[in-house]
């Protein structure tokens, strides 16, 4: 099934999960699209089976808290940042609920965590105005960049470069093999005093960069030239909440939730809004991602909600395999 404007408008809530007692601060799909794991301010990690449409297990990180959870390339291990005690990043085996390694170094809250799409490298950005480069096999930082402001950062889809958005006004591109020589491109954007950048993502085709904010606006940049192609607004975020925005896997659409539980969808090329969906949420939609393999996406406040394209064969209990993307 191919994603089109009409298909996006046909999405409906399939399942609502109420496993959490507090805000879900992050979630991540496995690369095969079969599971999703969430982290919450209630210190829990909940693993869901996307094909069965049900929670599989719940783990806890009560001592350190849990935020910014990311799958590694192994489907049973994750890395996540801490939001209690210290700002160490932790590497956890889901199989036996044991820590494999700790990555200490940041001394303020970690605000960005991005796993390389090709190997065991990952990068982290922090309010301590640094970006650190790590390898899962070593607790020692592999590279350290001191910046002029707080960063958001992400790998490109080929894992060759990473982008750093700094001080909500410039984007710098670095070659992973020679990042210590400085950026090979810098894009300066007009500074918006009303909001700060909270996230940066590449589209899967590597051509676009999506900048999300804690205000009521998103921007899409040309990843090669740095030109602002579109600014998207018209969604509710009056309280300055960090709302996750995402591309669809085909790079054709941009999605974000809002504080009133609605989900807004735009065409990335034309800039036109194509859908406004009711997410059935009780609070701001802090997390929103499309499944990388199947025709479903998830959104979260304190509840996790999965959405399927209609019509649903055999009802919403149908295996998501039946909606595999092509």
UniProtKB/TrEMBL annotation:
Q: Provide the transmembrane region boundaries.
A: none
Give the PANTHER family listed for this entry: WD REPEAT-CONTAINING PROTEIN 82, WD40 REPEAT PROTEIN SWD2
List the residue ranges forming a coiled coil, or say none.
none
Q: Organism, per UniProt?
A: Astatotilapia calliptera
**What is the annotated signal peptide range for this record?**
none
List the subcellular locations. Nucleus
Q: Name one Pfam family in it.
A: WD40
**InterPro entries to which the protein is assigned, alphabetical:** Swd2/WDR82 (IPR037867), WD40/YVTN_repeat-like_dom_sf (IPR015943), WD40_PAC1 (IPR020472), WD40_repeat_CS (IPR019775), WD40_repeat_dom_sf (IPR036322), WD40_rpt (IPR001680)
Which family does the UniProt entry place this protein in?
Belongs to the WD repeat SWD2 family.
Which GO annotations describe the biological process of this protein?
Answer: DNA-templated transcription termination; lncRNA catabolic process; negative regulation of DNA-templated transcription, elongation; negative regulation of lncRNA transcription; nuclear RNA surveillance
What Gene Ontology cellular component terms go with this record? Set1C/COMPASS complex
- State the name under which the record lists this protein: Anaphase-promoting complex subunit 4 WD40 domain-containing protein
Q: Give the main location.
A: nucleus
WD repeat positions: 17-58, 103-138, 235-276
The protein's matches in SUPFAM superfamilies, at most eight in alphabetical order, are given as: WD40 repeat-like (SSF50978)
User: Which GO molecular function, any one, fits this protein according to its record?
Assistant: chromatin binding
Q: Which SMART domains match?
A: WD40
Keywords from UniProt, A to Z, are: Nucleus, Repeat, Transcription, Transcription regulation, Transcription termination, WD repeat
């Amino acid at each position: 099934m191919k994603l089109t404007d009409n298909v996006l408008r046909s999405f409906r809530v399939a399942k609502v999960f109420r496993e959490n007692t507090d805000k879900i601060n992050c979630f991540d799909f496995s690369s095969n699209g079969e599971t999703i794991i969430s982290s919450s301010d209630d210190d829990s990690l909940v693993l869901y089976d996307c094909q069965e449409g049900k929670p599989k297990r719940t783990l806890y990180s009560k001592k350190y808290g849990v935020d910014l959870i990311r799958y590694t390339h192994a489907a049973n291990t994750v890395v996540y940042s801490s939001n209690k005690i210290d700002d160490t990043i932790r590497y956890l085996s889901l199989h036996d609920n044991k820590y494999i390694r700790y990555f200490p170094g940041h001394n303020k809250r970690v605000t960005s965590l991005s796993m390389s799409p090709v190997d065991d490298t990952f990068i982290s950005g922090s309010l301590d105005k640094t970006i650190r480069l790590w390898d899962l096999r070593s607790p020692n930082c592999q590279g350290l960049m001191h910046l002029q402001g707080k960063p958001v950062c992400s790998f490109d889809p080929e894992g060759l470069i990473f982008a750093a958005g700094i001080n909500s006004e410039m984007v710098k591109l670095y070659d992973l093999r020679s990042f210590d020589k400085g950026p090979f491109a810098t894009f300066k954007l007009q500074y918006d005093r009303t909001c700060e950048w909270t996230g940066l993502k590449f589209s899967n085709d590597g051509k676009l960069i999506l900048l999300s904010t804690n205000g009521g606006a998103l921007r899409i940049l040309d990843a090669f030239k740095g030109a602002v192609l579109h600014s998207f607004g018209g969604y509710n975020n009056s309280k300055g909440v960090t709302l996750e925005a995402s591309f669809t896997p085909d790079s054709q659409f941009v999605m974000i939730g809002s504080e009133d539980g609605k989900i807004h969808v735009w065409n990335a090329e034309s800039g036109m809004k194509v859908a406004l969906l009711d997410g059935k949420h009780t609070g701001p939609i802090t997390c929103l991602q499309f499944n990388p393999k199947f025709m479903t996406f998830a959104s979260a406040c304190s509840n996790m909600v999965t959405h399927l394209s209609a019509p649903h064969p055999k009802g919403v209990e149908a295996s998501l395999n039946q909606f595999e993307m092509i």
